[in-house]
Amino acid sequence: MTKKDCKPHFDLQVKEREISEAIVRAMVKQTRMVAKSMGMKAPELYKLLRKEGVLTKDENGYWFCPRYDNTGLGLMRYFIYFDGDGDQCLKQYPVWTEKGVKLIKEIVHEQRAN
Questions:
Q1: Residue 63 confidence (pLDDT)
Q2: What pLDDT is attached to residue 67?
Q3: Segments of the chain with pLDDT less than 50
Q4: Which helix (H) or strand (E) holds 76?
Q5: How far apart are the C-alpha atoms of 26 and 95, rounded to whole Å?
Q6: 96 - beta bridge partners?
C-alpha cells in the first residue's frame, strides 16, 4: 500500500471530523443569548458563573474551572485582535451546549429561589 492509496481514506476522516465539528459549533449558544433568555445580561451571568465556580477569568478571558472543563458543557471560542500598540492579542469566551444551558438554568433558578 502506498501513500497515494491511503489519501482518500485520510481525506474522508478529515471531512467527517470537520462536519462533526461544524455541527457542534452550530448547536452552541453564546452567553449573551443564554442570559437574555433568562432576563439577564451577559456580565451578570458571567459574574454568577464565576461565583458558582463554573468559570474563572484572567486577562485572556473566561475559562471553565477544572471541575467543569471537558464535561460537555460548552466549547471555548477565540478571537484575535490588535491592541493600541499594534500587538496581536487573544481573548476567549465560552459558548454553551444544551447540557451547559441546562446547568446554567439550574444555577439561576437556585439563585433566584434563595
A1: 93
A2: 95
A3: 1-7
A4: strand 74-82
A5: 11
A6: 29, 74
Amino acid at 50: R
- The pTM is what? 0.74
Q: Is 45 strand, coil or helix?
A: helix
| 2, 13, 69 from 92: Cα distances, Å | 42, 28, 14
Question: Which uninterrupted H or E stretch holds 80?
Answer: strand 74-82
- CA–CA distance, 76 with 11 (Å, rounded to integer): 26
Alpha-carbon span 50 to 73, nearest angstrom: 15
Q: C-alpha cell of 94? A: 465560552
Task: Please give the C-alpha separations between residue 30 and each of 72, 75, 88, in angstroms, as whole numbers.
Answer: 15, 10, 24
Task: Identify the DSSP state of 72.
Answer: S
Contact present, 62 and 93 (Cβ < 8 Å): yes
Distance CA 62, CA 73 (A): 14
Question: Hey, what amino acid is at 111?
Answer: Q
Locus of grid cell 477544572: 66
